[in-house]
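User: Show me sequence and structure for the first protein, then do the same for the second.

Assistant: Starting with the first protein.
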Amino acid sequence: MNAIATRWASAEETMRRLAMTVLGALAVAAALIFAAPAHAQNAQAQPSPYGLEEVVAAGHGFFGSTSGAIATAIERAFSMYGLPNGYILGQEAGGAFVGGLTYGEGTLYTKNAGDHSVFWQGPSLGWDFGGEGARTMMLVYHLPSVDNLQGRYGGVAGSAYLVAGVGMHVLKRNNVLLVPVRTGVGARLGVSVGYLKLTNRPPARSNRHAGETGPLIEAALYIATGFLAAVLAAMIVAPAIWRRAVYLTRKRIEASVPLTVSELQADKDRLRAEHAVAEKKLDVALRKQRDLSTRQAAEISDMKATLKDRDASIAERDATIGDLTGQLDATREELGRTRADLEATRLELNTTNAALSALADQQTRYGALEDRLGETREKLRTQQGKARDSRAEARQTAELLKTERAKSAEMDTRLERAIARASDLEDKLARREKEITRLRDAQAGEEADLQELEQRALDAEQERAALEEELGDLTVRVARITKQLDGQEPEAVIGARDVKIAQLEADLKSERKRVKALTEQLEKHEATSADEGEAALRDEIGALAAEIVHMASLLEGEGSPIPDLVAEADDGAPQGTVSLAARVRALQAKARRGTGAPPPVGENGKAAETDAVSS
């Protein structure tokens, strides 16, 4: 089998060399055809150029009905090469079968050199078939003189039309260009390489005057035509020779090989079958490999998706941990503020407890005052009878009564101030109650936040153990805060305080009612009461007002301005009359003796004086 393949390869190489030889001969013939010498130029005046409209008008008169296509070709030539200084109008005929010949004649038109007859002929070689007769306009560029037009112009031409057509190509000799524009009638197809020789005489007369050049050219043309005909014949006969060579080569190979054609065919079929089986195995292995690659690609895609999900989960956990850390920091700050608020609240509770203890003592005093008020009512009934007898004396003491009324009005004003102070105390107690309620709500919110933080910390305990430790510390701190409350529930302390505040408010209301009743009784009986009854009633009112002022001072605590006002008060009462300031100082002294507290100091730096006034 290897020997057969080698012989086939040698036969193909032989045919390839033969084809290359034929093509080389064609190339040499074309080179010989275009190797003609050019004539020298004559030094004459260069013709003037023509404009586009002039050339188009001449073409219209020459070509007639086909002038539209001719005008398009002329415009294209003008756009490519510029203005010509002459043009040729004439007819030509030609034909080709691989090699071709063209003959024509016409008239050269110039502006300043006149009109001249022109004849042309020339061969061509190439893939060109057909024949034609054509009208031709040749645009002449860069023509220095009329005599320089004569010579050989080489170029490449192509045609493709049936019955009729328009064509244009370019021929060149030295610096002179010829652009033939043809309207052909016939059938022509192909591309060829050739030249046109332009003369001012017909071809026969030109040959007689040309000496030996004409016969040499004709001989060269005949030789080229014969060579081309031989090549054409060789190309026609080559397929038969090729088939004969193949047949003889096959017979020679069969004779040299000890196997018959059937055996060779069987061996070839066997090899083909083995190759098919091997190819099938490779195909199956390739499919398995592709399936494996597909599965691996799917697994890789799944793993990428899983990695993306894990990255997103890690990022979400990091964000959650950051949020939890921020919340823990905020919770620590809030706990610090809550701890400070609890300390302040504890101090306020201690102050309030002291005030409530003082109010409890005042309640006891209020009971004694009620008893005294009952006795006073009895005395008033007794004095009413005496008042009837002492009306005359009442007229004499009218001036004194006016003075006492003024003092009573002043005492009423002070009483109203004390009542206003008590009202301010109620407002302050209400604000304290709201603050305690807000702290209770804040503590409940903190407990809920702690539970939520503990739940979140349990979810992230595998990644952030430090967070669990901080939550543990936070729980210990909350327990410590709870322990600092001395084992008491904040709700119980606030409830006891609310009860005491409500009791104080009720006592204040009852005392206000009593003062109002005593004032009304004083107004009703002031006209008929005697000096002794008025003095007793005035003493009762003063004592009650002193009790209320003292109670307000205790409720307001150390920041109360009442001690300073009492210290600065001017005791302008007549001799034998105890003023409200003196009564308040006596109550304060009694309270200090009971508690062992130092005397209060006013704004002027002096201790408030206390007068021992008996009830």
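Switching to the second protein now.
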Amino acid sequence: MADNEPQETDARVPDSGIPEDSEPHHSTPKLHTPDITELEGSRPEQTKASFTDLLKPSDWLKAVLVVTSPEARIPAWNSRAPTRELEMLTPARDSWVTEREKQVHRRRQNATKVVRDRASTLEREQRDLKKPKESGDKTKQTPLSNRPTVSLMICVLISFLLLALVWQFMDRNGEGQDYHKLGLSHYETGEYEFALEWFLKDLEVQQAKGHKANLVTAHIDVAKTYRLLDKTDLATSHLNTALQMAQQTDDQHGQMEVYFCLGDLQREQLHDPRTSIQYYKQALTLARQLGDRHEEGLTYNRLGMAHDEMGEYQEALEWHQKALKIHQTGDQHGQMRVCFWMGDLQKDQLHSPSTSIQYYDQYLALARQLGDRREEGLAYNRLGLAHSDMGEYEAALEWDKMYLKISEEIGEKKNQIAAHTQVGNAFRLLGKVDQATSHFNTALRMAQQVGDQHGRMDVYFYMGEIQRDKFNSPRTSIQYYEQSLALARQLRDKHWEGAAYNRLGRAHYEMGEYEAALEWLKKELMIRLESGDKAYLLTAHENMAGSYKALGKPDQARSHYQSAMTLAMETGNKEKQDVIAKELASL
């Protein structure tokens, strides 16, 4: 039976606005927030004494550094502490400034508790002071550092410093912008749940302000994040809201962005490229009206991708060439994207990995020229896949290792998962099972940690491959293929669903369970008929023919072999024509 192996899904090239799928650098580390017991300490007298010298503005700044430091311990601090030690708190203070809003809220709550507790202390001290005065016992009067006036000063000072700092970062005038930036930061690192949290807060702020243009952008950001979390209903709802607002205010840029996003949702999540084309064409019309050549080029790219997925490769090629023509006017980023998609078209649809390498080489050169490490990594990814398709597994492994290294340097979690999966698969194809298994296990662990369902789907598929073709255990492989299939269905990924049907059919065939194999292969054939990809359709007919032949049904086998032969001739696949001719002669 014929193999029909898909390639790993991986991060896409960003197009506009929020990047499509990936990430720079590191997630914000969680910082410790001292609670009230830490602020007060176990020795209140020492706490109060520590702040008796805070009479000058320079000392107030030192206090701010300490109070806002994640490592702050007020009882241990004194305004006369060495300057070097105080300066060491500055990085912690700067980190705190960018920490989550809940940290700020918690600080505000702590400050409120400080005020309340200080007030209670003041009342208690007033009572304590009143008693010795009434008895005339001057020896029991409170020392200077503990007198009510000093305690009041300490109370007001600490509370004011905390609250002033908190409200500085809670200023509503800049709050939405900060939320938006924080959302983008998490989005770009693939932390979509965190990104969503910030984008929703940004949306709330923009709703309070009532600024329509910003509201449109906020709804689009939320929708894009929901889309990548595979929450298509919520994504669609926010996009429809954004479109309605953009139409009401005649915001053509907003409308263009919404149509673009709706096209992406239809094509990538709902796997309906035909519907996506309608949205992309609406976006294209607006881009032309606005004279936005950049967006026009991006839309040409998307139209090429949609036709590509429908099996209409000539139309896809024409759209990509239009995009390339626009971007050759000096837009090197645009040229880079077109080289990427032209390479994918040659590799995945026209099944010409050697030609795709030429485009990927151009893509890599532009990425290096622009100093774009993320795009450089994706070029390594594609070069590894192309060499693997050509059976050049050693070369593929070298590119895959470079992809893994750069993904780890940048901190892109999803790309690290894809890279470990690719490296593992290269080792598998080289017969190095232990190394392959190690990388697959790493990829699976990371995918589970970050909730990357596509990553899990890929890993389960290739773990099934190891069981079937290296350990000769088709029964065990079925368990992995079924897990991959369940995720493919959940993600509505027809391509991987078809691949899982193919492998389940092969596993049952190898176990001699030809009827079961035939049922799975029929499902694969239906998927391939829907996609229109002739290469995969050829393989599906060939596998069906093999199953019917094994069941002793030569007429049905002959029919499918003839269909496969027609497709082999249409695609110019001479090797397949020879194989199928021999099978037909044997019936």
